[in-house]
Structure formats: structure tokens, C-alpha cells
Amino acid sequence: MAERAQPLTGTVAAGLLAAAAIPALILVTGGAVLTKATGASGLGPGDWAAIRFTLLQAALSALFSVALAVPVARALARRRFAGRSLLVALLGAPFLLPTIVAIFGLLAIFGRGGVLNAGLVALGFEPVSIYGLWGVVLAHVFFNLPLATRLFLQGWLDVPSERLRLAASLGMGPGAIFRHIELPMLARTAPGALLVIFVISTTSFAVALTLGGGPRATTVELAIYQAVSFEFDLGRAALLSAIQLGLTGAAALFALSFVGHAGFGAGLDRPTRRWDGKGAMTRTADSVAICLAALFLILPLAAVLIAGLPALISLPDVVWWSAIRSLGVAAASTLLVVALTLAMARAAVRRRSLARPIEGAALLAIAASPLVLGTGLFILVFPFADPTRLALPVTALVNAIVTVPFALRAVLPAWQKIEADHGRLAASLGLKGWARLRLVELPRLARPLGFSAGVAAALSMGDLGVIALFADSDTATLPLQVYRLMGAYRMEDAAGAALLLMLVSFALFWLFDRGGRVDADA
Amino acid sequence: MLYPILAAGLLAATGAAAQDTPVLTVYTYDSFVSDWGPGPIIEETFEATCACDLEFVAAGDGAALLARIRLEGARSDADIVLGLDTNLTAAARETGLFAPHGIDAPALDLPIAWDDAEFLPFDWGYFAFVHDTGLENAPRDFRELAASDYSIVIQDPRSSTPGLGLLLWVKAAYGDDAAGIWQDLSDNIVTVTPGWSEAYGLFLEGEADMVLSYTTSPAYHLIAEEDETKTAAAFTEGHYMQVEVAGKLASTDQPELADAFLAFMLTDGFQSVIPTTNWMYPAAVPEEGLPDGFETLIEPDRALLYPADEAAAIRGEALDEWLSALSR
Q1: Both B170 and B289 in a single domain?
Q2: E-assigned strands of chain B?
Q3: What residues pair up with A260 in beta bridges, in sequence order?
Q4: Residue B84 is part of which domain span?
Q5: pLDDT tens readout for residues B174-220
Q6: At the top level of its lineage, which domain of life is listed (chain B) (predicted)?
């Protein structure tokens, strides 16, 4: 499969440009921060401890999320039951929750005064403490188990139904199907999922600190915050941010080298149906996996719902206005994400050697410290314009950039598979450019693209990273308004606003995702 | 054809408006300008007298506020910065961006003497551990707290001004023994949150028996929620203070308006809003006194506060002690 030297086509150029925009933005903002630095102090022992803890918790979070996602995704792929599509949709919710909302939801279940400990004490057991390394990992698994499950489920749904029919007619049992069909699919999907979750978890700030129990649980992002806000040591902030990026870059190179190509051959796009897993053992195992995952994910969400409902209807007007502002930000950033993702994925498919560099570049976006990005943008914008006037566009831009890697992870493998399955036929028919995109590719991309747009929209609703630096009283987004209510002691209204945020994020996700999943559940 | 005329008309209109009403830009922390903070009322009251447009710009918390000013430097649009505390004023003064406030011997009601050429206080409070009134044998000092089984939530001194306040409180009360106090406290600390809101939220959710907040926090529950179940523990070694200040930037293009605002800041129009919006003590008690309910709050016997320079000098050492005591 050696590639001949090819001219730089418009498609490839557009994709490269989109991919280059991300490292360029990180470099330029980092550079801008450095221009304001006055003599950099080196790293102290505290910083090294922070780096170690960051890596440890991120690695554990990724491993547990992915390991637990495999049985859940497998069970969901094999079973049809009432409420399955709702459950699959709900799987999107935790990942999209704003951190602070999720923390309070988790504490209502796992906290000192939570349901779990109330139960344990009632049964005569010692209460357990969520605070510490394992609390941090638990929270990250809560966020990311659903993401990993969705990525795997996508992989399972991408197995052509013809293969499963063949497996059934050959009389393959669950073990054989696992070896011949599922394991290769997992080997292809898992490294990417591990990587994405590892990278997300490295930039953890509020979760690590709130649930970490003390300064042992210090992450690099906290050290960056301290350097910017309390010490105004911008050189150190830039250095720490570069280290965070370096670690992610190394992890990306390592993990992406395991990401293989689709190898199932083409199917006829029939709805997937399974003939395996009829035995009592597998049925029970699947039921247990689904029930446990559903409980783990739904209970904290229910806690958020219960806490927020009383105040939801009587929320002050300003909160609703913030919600509308947040919707605008989400719409703009979703458009941007879809455009960037399509451009990058298309280039990566047309020129296979570019796939890894493009995806690696995108991944840098999650690893970049939002605080350094925001500060850098602020420094760049300030000489030319009033930063508060640009609060919403800047938020939309940064949210979009940070979301692209998730979208790409969902779209690129699907597109690569389409290319492998249908590329030659399309080429022999002379289908090119727009026609090929419209007739062959977009219809088959609808599902991952809908998922990506949903994730982008919902993440943009929830993000707080950059807005805090730019916002004033007239441009507050919904997450910022939640914090303001908390800051004013109004915890009940804050719970109401948090519920609104959860509902809107989830509705957006559902809307887009549903649009792309029309064939998922027959 | 209409567009150029329209545009010209609009430009003229906005130009004229800008000339007529000067704009005073005040940078402050986020919760000050929120719809539930003092900002909106103060804006209305001051604009009624100044023939100007008072514009609040929010920039995170107190520490982020200072970082913002440092980023912008002398080119900043800000005329006034409102919301630094005495742990930040040394660094703020060092930037050379602030001008003297020019108010001789301001009439203040602080438990300490105030002498600062650049920064004027607008409110203050005592840090304290807030708990439910039902808590039996509430600790009376840090040693009792450390020896008890009571759980506390505190804020991280590296990302939160109350967290930094607690650090200096222990240091001011115990000096060289501070490290030992922190070691003894470590098994009482449920967790350390990035900011005040998370900690207070955790406390209200029942995650800890006590939370680091202010002696004035119970006033919110009493006055706004008619809830009498919250109180603050009075510590015999004294309570560390937070004094929140404002300063005028040397680069202001509205020096007279800025002076007028600083003078207004210590009058009833500003001060009477503070107790029930910012839930702190006003720097100058208004004529009608403090709102009903404030008389129920504990009043510490001793007020602790490092002078700004000392606070800045001592912070690094205190932080290292804190880190090593709690990282074991």
C-alpha cells in the first residue's frame, strides 16, 4: 500500500489547514503568555509530585473506564430491550455534565452523607470515604465510562450484519465470535478510547481537587492556576502547560501506533442483528453489566434532578437569558466542530499517511490548559479590542477546538471503514468530490457525525474554562451563572440552574445524536 | 442608499452619547456584579448622582482580578479595582499601577487601625468555621478542633482567598507551631476544594460537620432563609480578618470620577447594601446600623491580621508547611 507522491489537492490542503489551526492556536497563545513572563522559575518538588499524580490518576481513570466499558457495550450490542435506546442516549449525559454538577450528583450517592453510606450503615457496615485517589478515579470513570461505551458500541455497530449472520450459520459460540469478530474490533477501538480518556483526565482540576481530599491530589492544572492567579508567574504557567502537552503528545504517539485499520470488508448496510449470546450465562452476565452501569450512571443524574426540581420553575430571568446565550455559543461551536472535523477526517482518509499526524494534532487541543489558552487569547486580543465584547465568540472558538478530538475519534474510524469498504467501487464508478460525499460517505457518516455534533453542542453548553476570564455581568453563560448563584449562598437556585444546564445539554445531545441514529434501533 | 446615512447617524448618536456621559470602569470579582451581589444596586445609586455611566467588569475572584490588571498594565480601561484583599495588596502595590486614594483619615469602623495610602477598605469579615447549631461541644480553638472527631471542609490556599486566609490564620495564631497544628488537623479535613462555593456546597450537602467561611455566613441563612440552624464557632485564639479594598489606577482617564466613587464607597448609599448582598461587615457602618439578625453573630475577642507586606512575605513559608503537613 505504498503511496505515490500526490499533488496537494484542495481536500488535503483544507484538512491540513484545519488540523494545523489547533497546534498553531496552542503555540501562539502559549507564546503570548511567555511574552508577559518575567523570568521563569524552575519546577519545584511540588510540581513533580503534581505531574506524578496527574499521570497516575489519568492512567487509572482510562484503564478502568475502558475495561468496564467492554462488557457494557457488548451487552448493549447483543440485547434488545424496552428502554434500550433511552439508555444508550442517557449514556451521553455524564460526559456532558459540567464538573461541579457531576460532583454534587456523585456525592449525593457516594459521599459521606450519600445514599450508599446510609445503606452501608443501616446494614451495619463501616461507611466508606469517596475522598482520595479512588474518588478522583470514580468520578473520572463516571464521566468517561459512557464515552468509552459509546465508542465501543459504535465499533460493534460497525461490524457488518453479514459477518454476524455468517458467524451464526457457522455455529460460532460467544467465545468464537469474541475471538474472530469482537477482539479485532476492540483492538482497533481500545487504544483510541484509552488515549482520549487519559488525555481528558490529565487536565482535571475541580474533580481532582474537590474529591482528592487534599494537596496530595494536586494536578498540573492546579499548579498552572496557582502560577497564573496567585503568583503571576506566567513563565512557569507556560512551562507547566508545555509539560502537560508533552506528556499528552507522548501518550498520543504511543497509543495511535496501535490504532489499526478496519478489516471486516464491506457489508450491505443492513440493520445489525445478533444471533449469539442466547445462553443463560451470557444473558445473566449481560443483564448484570447493563443494570450495574445504568445504576452507576443514572443514580447521580437522578440526584441532580431531585435537588434541582424545586427551584427549576422559579429560576430568576437572568438564568434563562444565560441559557439562551449558552445555546448561541453551543450552536456556533457545533457548526465549527462539524466543519473542522469533516475537513480533517476527509484529508486523513484521502491521504492515509496524514491520518495519525492529523489526529495527533487534534488531541493536543484537549491537553492544552484552558487557562493558558484563555490567558493567551486575552493577551492577544487586548491590544485591539475590549476582551469582554468578545467573550462569547472566544468561548465558542475555544469550545470548538477542544471538542474536535472527540468528534474526530468518532468520525475518522467510520470514514476509514467506508473508504475501505466502498472506496474502490466508488472510484471505479468515477464518483468524486461532492457526489461521492453525498451518495456514499455522508449517509454512512450520519451516525458518528450526529454523535459528534451532539457532543460538541452539549460540551459547549457546559464549558467554563475560558469564559470566566472574559465575561462580565452581561455575557454570563449558564455554567457561570451556576457558580454565581453558589457564590451568593443560593445553593437551591444553583441546583435548579444546574438541572436546567443538564437538561439543555442533554436535549441538545439527544437532538443531534437522534438525527444521526435513525437506523440504530429497529 | 440609506445605509451610509443610517450608519453616520448611529455613529453621531453614539459619539454624542459617549461625550455626554463619561464612563467609569470598575473591575471587580465575579460575585460582586452578579444579580445577587451588591453591584446592580450600587450602580444605580451612584449613577443617580454622578451623571456618568458606571460599568462593572467581572474578573473571576480576587486573585484573578489582580492577574487581570497585571496582564493589562497601564493600558487597562479600568479606573478602579474593587475586591482585592490585604493578602494581595502588597503584590498590587508592587506593580506601581495604583495611585494614592487621597482620602485623609477615612471614617472607618474596622476592629484594626487602617493606614494605607493606595487602598481603601469597603467591607471586611472574620474567617470562621460554620456549623449547625445542633453540633455538640463545638471546638473553641484549633487544638480542640484537631483533637475532636469533627470533619471540616477547607479551601485550597493556592486557588482561593479564604483558603489563603485560613493558612495565615493558623500562622498568626500559632507561629512556629503552625505546622504541628496542620498535621493534627489533617485527619479532620474531609477534602480541600478549589474555591469557597464548592466547600460551602459540600457542607450544606452534609459532607462535613464544619466549613471554613465567615462569621457573617449564618446571617444569610437567618435573614434570607429564616433558617436559624447555622452558627459559627468562636475561637479563643482570635479570628483572622479579611479586609476587602478598592484602589484607583494611576492610568485612569477619569480621575475626578474615580475619586468621587471612592468617596461614595464609604457613604451609606454603598455601605448599606453590603451586609445583605455581600454578607460581610460594612467598612463604615451606615446610619441605620447593621440589619436585624447581625446582632446574633459571634464577635471574636481578638482580630488577627498580618499587615500587607508581612502577609506577602510569610505566604511562601506557610504554604510549604501546609503542603508538607497535608501531603503525608
Answers
A1: no
A2: 23-28, 53-58, 80-85, 98-99, 119-132, 152-155, 189-193, 210-214, 230-233, 239-249, 281-282, 303-304
A3: none
A4: 16-124+243-295
A5: 999 999 999 999 999 999 988 898 899 999 988 999 999 999 999 99
A6: Bacteria
Q: Which residues of chain B have pLDDT under 50?
A: 1-18
Q: Give the closest residue to A62 by CA, choosing from A191, A210, A209, A216.
A: A191
Tell me the pLDDT band of A60, cut-offs 50, 70 and 90.
very high
> Is residue A333 in some structural domain?
yes
The verdict on B261 and B301 lying in the same domain is no
- Give the C-alpha separation, A326 to A478, whole Å: 6
**Does B168 fall in a domain?**
yes
Out of A31-35, A230-234, A268-272, pick the least confident: A268-272
Looking at the structure, tell me whether residues B155 and B287 fall in a common domain.
no
- pLDDT single digits (tens) A442-484: 888 888 888 888 888 887 776 655 555 666 556 678 888 888 8
User: What are the contacts of B105-113 at 24+ separation with CB within 8 A?
Assistant: B106/B266, B106/B284, B107/B266, B107/B284, B108/B266, B108/B283, B108/B284, B109/B281, B109/B282, B109/B283, B109/B284, B109/B285, B110/B243, B110/B283, B111/B241, B111/B303, B112/B241, B112/B243, B112/B303, B112/B305
Entry pTM: 0.85
Three cell numbers, residue B48: 443617580
For residue A438, give Cα distances in angstroms to A178, A434, A444, B315.
34, 6, 10, 63
Q: Is residue A5 part of a domain?
A: no
Q: What is the ipTM of this complex?
A: 0.82
Distance from CA of A60 to the nearest CA of B (A): 20
Report yes or no on B2 lying in a domain.
no
Inter-chain CB proximity A491 and B63 less than 8 Å:
no
Contact status, residue A471 vs residue A484, Cβ threshold 8 Å = no
Q: Which three cell numbers stand for residue A91?
A: 449514556
Is residue A139 packed enough to be buried (19+ CB in 10 Å), middle (13-18) or exposed (0-12)?
buried
- Of the candidates A210, A318, A491, the beta carbon closest to that of B193 is on A210
Contact call for A473 and B34, based on CB within 8 A: yes
DSSP string, A74-125: HHHHH---TTHHHHHHHTTHHHHS-HHHHHHHHHHHHSTTSHHHHHHHHTTP
A484 min Cα distance to partner chain B (Å): 6
Closest C-alpha to B84, from B69, B56, B62? B62
Pairing of strands B239-249, B303-304: parallel
Q: Is residue A4 domain-resident? A: no
- The single-letter DSSP state of residue B105 is S
CATH number of the domain bearing residue B189: 3.40.190.10
Distance from CA of B267 to the nearest CA of A (A): 23
Residues in B closer than 8 angstroms to A377, CB to CB, are none
Pairing mode, if any, of strands B281-282 and B119-132?
antiparallel
- Asked if residue B49 belongs to a domain, the reply is yes
Range of A236's domain?
10-516
Q: B207 and A225 in contact by Cβ < 8 A?
A: no
Tell me if A229 and B67 make a contact (CB, 8 A cut-off): yes
For position A151, which CATH number holds? 1.10.3720.10
First to last CA, chain B: 75
Say how far apart CA A126 and CA B274 lie, in whole Å. 45
The total domain count for chain A is 1
**CB–CB of B194 and A46 under 8 A?**
no
Q: Are residues B224 and B303 in the same domain?
A: yes
| Residue pLDDT, tens place only, B95-134 | 999 999 988 878 899 999 998 999 999 999 999 999 999 9
List the grid coordinates of B247: 484602589
Instruction: Kindly list the distances between the CA atom of residue B71 and the CA atoms of A464, B40, B97, in Å, as whole numbers in the listed order.
Output: 20, 26, 11
Residue A275's pLDDT band (cuts 50, 70, 90): low
